[in-house]
Design brief:
- The chain has 444 residues and is an alpha+beta fold.
- The protein folds into three domains: 2-112, Alpha-Beta Plaits, CATH 3.30.70; 152-238, Roll (Chitinase A, domain 3), CATH 3.10.50; 275-435, Trigger factor, C-terminal domain (Trigger factor, domain 2), CATH 1.10.3120.10.
- 48% of the residues lie in helices and 18% in strands.
- The chain has 14 helices and eleven strands.
- Strands 6, 7, 8, 9 and 10 form a five-stranded antiparallel sheet that branches. The chain has a four-stranded antiparallel sheet with strand order 1-2-4-3.
- Helix 1 (21-36) packs across helix 3 (61-84), helix 7 crosses helix 10 and helix 8 (298-318) packs across helix 10 (334-361).
- The protein is elongated.
Length: 444
């Protein structure tokens, strides 16, 4: 095989491929073996028909050659892709220019390839993640949760503030749907919990028992409802005094100091783990924003969307649920679901393009040794030999894809070492905290 490439407009490439007589004869023999198992010839068992008899019964050597070309074209194309190291993202348009009837087979294949994005500012990236630092307010809130279990509720006749417990009657009417209204009497709600709908807490602050409020809010799945609430009673929680005696009698600790130290240690571990878990996704999203969304090809977004929809369907089937049932339970339309999946797909494609651009910008292309090492690791995970995996990658045209995955691993490590992680308030986070292992108990 001989394959060359020509760059066309709009991220398209033309492959020009020549298949010599030796390769073509191998393809013809393979096609003959396949047809021999399918064609019935009187006097011969299937699979045992001689090649000359088979040719006579199917219409001549031209028919066999055509069948060989049809069967082998996907393999010819995949090998040409592997040899030229192009990165196709769509289906090729193949045109045979010579050799349909005999001699060297020559064909062109035009295909859209992955665009090369460019990025700037990757060395100045500031990535926001949850802060791993425990402050006094965090500890006080945790202690107050313990105190609330022993709190006394007292009626108040003042404007509502955050934390109050309000008893109310609620009427919920969905807009532009046939769903029956929902009525709840004496519903108890903690102001500030945000468990009804967006905007309730802000509107309720400052009102008093006996007043009414009304607003429109989401019930999920793109559906809006009108909420009408009659505020009947307001109570405040009176927390017990925090003393060593109360701590000793109501918690597992003996003193306020011991309680605070234990809570600080526990919260520090939890917050560090939370920050560590958010690092990768946060830095990938930040990097992706350096890539203009206009460069994202529709074909990649469509493919990613379909994969996500297929994955959702597979997960639902394992739970013995249909997609229709899922849509009903989540109160959304198929169009809304697809729109959500497409947004996620665009983000995923932008991340992929950004990572490839980072590889180029920071010269992170893997060496042959690094590729071979990863190939061995992957082969072991798949329980196959490295040589078999290497052959499979070439025959299926996935050599470039595998190299790109190794390169993106290097890019991910570069990002982790070079971006600046900051907390929600913009404060820079100590990188050593993010590297610490929280899998063991303190002082273990």
């Amino acid at each position: 095989m001989r394959a060359t490439t020509t760059t066309l407009d709009n991220n398209r490439v033309k492959l020009s491929v020549e298949i010599d007589d030796l390769e073509m004869n191998e393809a013809i023999d393979a096609a003959a073996a396949t047809l021999a198992k399918q064609v019935s010839v009187k006097g011969f068992r299937k699979g045992k028909v001689p090649k000359n008899v088979l040719i006579a019964n199917i219409g001549g050597p031209g028919v066999l050659r055509s069948e060989a070309i049809r069967e082998s074209m996907p393999d010819f194309y995949a090998r040409a892709v592997a040899d030229t190291l192009i990165d196709p993202i769509g289906q090729p348009e193949i045109n045979i220019t010579e050799g349909e009837e005999g001699g060297t087979l020559v064909f062109d294949a035009e295909v859209e390839v992955r665009p090369e994005a460019t990025i700037r500012g990757q060395r100045e990236l500031r990535v926001t993640i949850p802060s791993p630092v425990v402050n006094d307010a965090d500890v006080d809130r945790q202690i107050d949760q313990y105190r609330e279990t022993d709190a006394v509720l007292r009626d108040v006749d003042r404007p509502i503030v955050t934390g109050d417990l309000v008893t109310m009657d609620i009427h919920v009417q969905q807009i532009a749907t046939d769903v029956e209204p929902l009525d709840m009497s004496d519903f108890m709600y903690t102001v500030g919990s945000g468990t009804i709908t967006e905007g309730v807490d802000e509107l309720m602050l400052g009102l008093k028992a006996g007043e009414e409020m009304k607003l429109n809010g989401s019930v999920g799945g793109g559906v809006t409802a009108t909420y009408e609430m009659k505020l009947k009673q307001v109570k405040e929680r009176e927390l017990p005094e925090l003393t060593d005696e109360w701590v000793d009698e109501n918690t597992e600790w003996g003193t306020i100091e011991g309680m605070r130290e234990a809570i600080i240690s526990q919260m520090r571990r939890m917050k560090i783990v939370e920050a560590q878990m958010s690092q990768r996704d946060a830095m990938l999203v930040a990097l992706s924003e350096l890539v203009n969304e206009d460069i994202v090809p529709d074909v990649l977004v469509d493919e990613e969307t379909n994969e996500r929809l297929h994955d959702l369907g597979h997960r639902l089937s394992k739970q013995q649920l249909s997609l229709e049932t899922f849509l009903q339970v989540t109160n959304q339309t198929a169009e809304a679901l697809l729109a959500t999946l497409r947004v996620d797909a665009v983000r995923a494609v932008r991340i992929d393009l950004a990572m490839r651009a980072l590889v180029k910008a920071e010269q992170l292309e893997p060496t042959e040794e690094e590729i071979d090492a990863e190939l061995v690791t992957t082969a072991e995970a798949m329980s196959v030999s490295p040589d078999l995996l290497r052959t499979n990658l070439r025959e299926t045209g996935r050599v470039v894809t595998f190299h790109a995955e190794v390169a993106k691993m290097k890019a991910s490590r570069w990002l982790m070492d070079n971006v600046t992680f900051v907390g929600p308030e913009g404060e820079e986070i100590d990188r050593e905290l993010l590297r610490s292992d929280q899998s063991q108990e303190p002082d273990a």
